[in-house]
Amino acid sequence: MFMIEMAKGSPVLSVRIPVELLALVDEVIARSADTRKDGPWNRSSFIVAAIEEKLEKMARSAGKPQTPLPESYGRDSSTF
């Protein structure tokens, strides 16, 4: 019998975001439709990029010479 193995993808994580902060994120996402060369953000892609940037900034502030993201790290293509 032949079975197709499905890709696992990224886990779904529920996060509470204050209404005021989410409104600001939604404004940036709406503006990105006309201005972002890689195409508009969506909520998931914006939040993932913000986490990546925060981790990299923390590493720079700690004086670490390279990114904390592992070489095997790859964004889930469904979020970008």
List the helices and strands and how they pair.
Layout: H1 19-35, H2 43-61
Overview of this protein structure:
By secondary structure, the chain is an all-alpha fold. The chain has a domain at 19-67. Helix content is 45%, strand content 0%. The chain contains 2 helices and no strands. The protein is globular, with a radius of gyration of 16 Å.
Query: Hey, roughly how much beta strand do the residues contain?
Result: under 5%
Radius of gyration: 16 Å
Count of individual helical segments: 2
Tell me the series of helices and strands, N- to C-terminal.
Answer: HH
Basic shape: globular
Short description:
The protein is an all-alpha fold and 80 residues long.
Question: Which descriptors apply to this entry?
Answer:
single chain, 80 residues, mainly alpha, 2 helices, 0% strand
